[in-house]
Fold this protein.
Amino acid sequence: MIKSKGILAILAVLALVAAACGGAAGADCTNDEPTAEVGLVFDIGGRGDQSFNDSAAAGIERACEDLEINFDEAAANSDGSNREELLALQSEDHELVIGAGFLFDVPMAAVAAANPDTNYAIVDGFIADAPANVAMLGFAEHEGSYIVGVAAALKSTSGHVGFIGGVQIPLIEKFEAGFAAGVASVDPSITIDVQYLTVPPDFAGFNDPAAGKVVGQAMYEGGADVVYHAAGGSGGGLFQAAKEYSVANDTHVWAIGVDSDQWLTAGPDVADYILTSMLKKVDVAVYETIASQVAGEFAGGFSTFDVASGGIDYSTSGGFVDDISDDLDAAKEGIVDGSIVVPDTP
């Protein structure tokens, strides 16, 4: 399921909440004779974002059930200043330590070099000259964004859609690029609104539902009837905006989720407004990395999870894209066979 590629400068999306050990933070799986001891460190955001971080948590919980590991987890403080400390603490008792997000790159490089007998993995991160005990897990987010762009174009009746990025960094611009290309493949005359919530060094755009709601509302009021977000926890605000705008105007506008199947997680009050989600299967990457550790086959270096490997897909929950599934699957097939080449920059 993992397809190796050359060096990519990947960054990633993160969110904010502190979490304790695996058992206390939503997982009750423990094993008396574990096959491995694994540590998972979330960045600012942790569990509860209903997106990127929760997907990482799902992967390690599945590994606890299926592979009979034990795990602990923690989350960085509000300014992220203790990332290296948390990685070092997890290294004391675990064979494999996973950092969820690109901002673990510098601290992980230091900790991995100091602990050559421990293996490490960074989700959505790249470390130049990484030690051999570091696996870098990247994704072809632009491919999945292309597919949901096709969905947005086919479902739009106004000829006007939107994209909300959490923070304007190269990774999130990949989402934008793929989405815009997918929309244009159906109808290049469709208008696409693009707005980012923050720019570096301000990463609050990944955990600001209020801002996501304001921007989403403005896009709907401006004529967009489908809006895709790549904004982590801020996406919850977009879903609320879709619902409130629809109710207030006796219409029905759509939001598109990201990373996990947000129709399943965002809540029943907004589920009817989530057309689909771009599935970036962080859970798959986390699970398969743990499986390689358990099998004694851990390998450092960079790997990419894409449509062809099953690491990127779109969701069908709710049945709202059933009528266009043939078109979406054709887009997937074109990406896999190379007849569709998706741009990764706007």
Summary: The chain has ten helices and 13 strands.
